[in-house]
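Encode chain A's predicted structure.
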Amino acid sequence: MSNKTILSTAAALVVASAPMAWGEAHEMAGNPTVGGASMMADMNIIENAVNSPIHTTLVAAVQAADLVETLQGPGPFTVFAPTDAAFDMIADESLNALLQPEAKAQLTQILTCHVIGAEAFSDAIGGMIADDGGAHPVETLGGCTLTAEMSGDDITLTDENGREATVTIADVDQSNGVIHVIDRVMLPRQ
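Encoded structure for chain A:
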């Protein structure tokens, strides 16, 4: 069984055991859906992530790094959330190595390189990019610096290795911050 299959199965178990608040939570007008799933503005980052069918690998990795409790906390956080397709760009062997207990510190750093300790919606990020002459440094909780730029109407992020991600779904409001869905996994300087 491949590591990606194991991750998908683990994430499916989390989703199945997570409280589904579809009828209890109210959706803010205009809050985008992710992978066809409604995202509820009164739910936290983890509660919404487990409901996203395109973030099963991210959810499993967050569990492996013991970051669930942190991302359920009060925040505020901005999470640049790579999709399953973004994780599929990583070789199975490399992803498997990251999920080993001895690599927990490295996995934690990679995941926290996708998180900032403030709430930053796309209009604010766009304003910072404009104020900084077209490129704004984004300091993450993992110690990485991402460079935010505009590509037409899209926000792009470039990690310290030159890997570029595009925000494909912006401004998914959460009770403890905001999620921006991205199409590539960002990595710390190698």
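Confidence is low (pLDDT under 50) at residues 1-29.
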